[in-house]
Amino acid sequence: MNKYAIYHITDVPYVYAVSKEELIIRMRAAKNDLKKCYIYVKDRYDWVSDFNIYEMKLYDSTDLFDFYSIKVSVDKKRYRYFFKLEDQKGEVLYYNERGFIEEEPKEHNAFQFPYLCEADVYEEVKWAQEGIVYQIFPDRFCNGNSSNDPANTKAWGENVDQRSMFGGDLQGIIDKVDYLKELGVTFIYMTPIFLSISNHKYNTCDYYSIDPHFGDINKAKELVEKCHEKGIKVLFDAVFNHSGHDFFAFKDVIEKGENSRYKDWFYIESFPVDLEKVNYITFANEVAAMPKFNTHNEEVKKYLLDVAKFWIEEVDIDGWRLDVCDEVDHEFWREFRKTVKRSKKDAFIVGEIMHEASSFLHGEQIDTIMNYPFKNCCTDFFGKSIISAEEFNNILASARNLYMDSINRQMLNLIGSHDTPRFLTESEGDIRRLKAAIAFQYTYIGIPYIYYGDEVGIDGGADPQCRKCMIWDEKKQNKDILNFYKTMANIRKENSTLIYGNYESLYSKDNVIAYRRKDDKGEIIVIINNNDKDYSLDLKELYENEFKDLINNKVVSMDKPLCLKSFQVNILRVNN
Hints:
The chain is of the alpha+beta class and 576 residues long. It has 15 helices and 28 strands.
């Protein structure tokens, strides 16, 4: 038995509550090493009864590990447990908090989950899990009111640079709510709309004022009301890691130096403050316009938490997207969560974390992240074909096992954003590759994410080229991509299995992937040929089933190998 690979801790994601009565318990082992995995479990204060013994289910695998899982409950919500492991050669070991032993262990050495506390049950955000998100860069989406355009506004659709202004505004978004509804969008996230001198608004001047080039607070209320009427929720974007250099408190520090009452709101290294030498900590490396907040300071904390509460209670927004979330302390986010959830219980909190984020996703801080690891994986596999199907499958499986199931269902699965090149550019304009990635987005675990304009064929390299103006001239829109997005939205909305079903990889080889989504509502098989050539796929385990192809509504009989055309996508629902 490969004991080096066996792993369990009494913390997320290896143990966590899924209800007031039920606990998920998981254990890791080397791939294909174990024949059976059992758990012995009972009330931790029961010294009389025998342990209940259950066989754990192999629920996921990577190239190195197998993961076993079970959902259990005991009457008193107090858990004592250990594992019995049997490998393929017949060796049997017991595994408890002391490690490995050959005989059934004594009770006091078992793993302990002291009490299933109601406050520790993570409340997932169902409306988000069941939704489709659309990201808007307001200046580039739609100009609905030319009277509030900046003085240097360029003609819509002209070439972009770092300082370009095009006049997009809140009225423009209001005018296109019906378009978003038809696209299948259920919530939108806008990059910041607060007062700022830049086009991107990530250097905030005033957290309580809508930038006048976008509108005002009444226009923001109108947008939220119109969206809510159409069943679309709205998230605002906030930067609580740093402010703009023209933020009132930082201006006071520039003016008064060590005598400023706000000097401890930031990380000032020496006085006077020097915008050229940048003698203070900023976002990234010496970005003078973005001084970093000291969120450990109680006054800073109160100010920012009041901002978070204000826009929910005043404008009725449905959550926050948080810029540079992982550079702010965990304690701040714990208080932020409590503040936000008190104002709106089902508000959705999204962090901009571009890599693994398990320390923020235990359920007491943010609800999810922008899933950049997913984006990078899809770009490399579908867009560029620089990783194999096996690598693709392994990267995703490893990521799935970092988080609770409910968190995985809430991941914002993007394939592009305002900070990355457009997928169509990454894939050298190959629409077939884009459609394959879209199909995967809409059928994998998590929330499909549309970056404005991807649906009509906008391309563009790194910032600022990924921030081109939205194409509203229908003659210039790519209707093939647009209609495919709509088809995928309908498939997802009509098949809850794609939201709540388990994920099982069936095939990953030769740039072809096949996987199963299954729950008590149904079973769906997705097959994607990510090749420039045809491919014959033989999945013998499916031979007995008859399927309905959800893309073309044709009945498919899997009684022989399936001939897949180049970049063909099949989404097959098992006919009961």
